Amino acid sequence: MGIVKQYSRATQSSNLRSDDRHHDTDKLAAVALSGPMGSMLFRVKYAFDATSYPPLKEAWRYQVRLRASINGWPEHVKDQTVADEALAYWLNDQCPACAGRSFMKMEFVDVLSDVPCPICLGSGKKPLIVNHRIKGKVAEMVDLLDTLTIEAGSAAVKKLADDMDGL
Q1: How far apart are CA 107 and CA 122, in angstroms?
Q2: Alpha-carbon distances of 48 from 43, 91, 124, 140, rounded to whole Å
Q3: pLDDT band at 161 (very low <50, low <70, confident <90, very high)
Q4: How many domains does the chain have?
Q5: Which helix (H) or strand (E) element contains residue 19?
Q6: Predicted confidence band of residue 102 (pLDDT cuts 50, 70, 90)
Q7: I need a labelling partner for 151 at 20 to 30 A (CA). Which of 35, 39, 59, 130 fits?
């Protein structure tokens, strides 16, 4: 089970004891220690923590503004618009037709077919629909959000592994 599923399960746990049989707090702590941005991304997307959304949005806007100034984005590309569009898409990127599974369910049975989803073409993500003038920048920032999440997850897994080595 990946860190995202472990984290999601831990946030929904009704028993956060930390003993020989309960280790949910380990996953929460590992993600929290992965860095402020990664921690906020995990809390908002996978723990459905709406209270973390405003600080995440503010921090994300700052990150995009910084990248826009460093990379010299054109005048017509508004960094705040790109940041908001990228974050909104990233938080809700699952294809509605296949529910993110990449394949369609067969009719009348609870089995996935071998046919890739015709909407997302097997990616599991819905198409990115934004103004064509900023689409490239929004896609770039969505990729960055994915990268930040992967880095935070990797840091959390490393922290969990380091803790296991100490046992």
Answers
A1: 18
A2: 6, 10, 20, 24
A3: low
A4: 1
A5: none
A6: confident
A7: 130
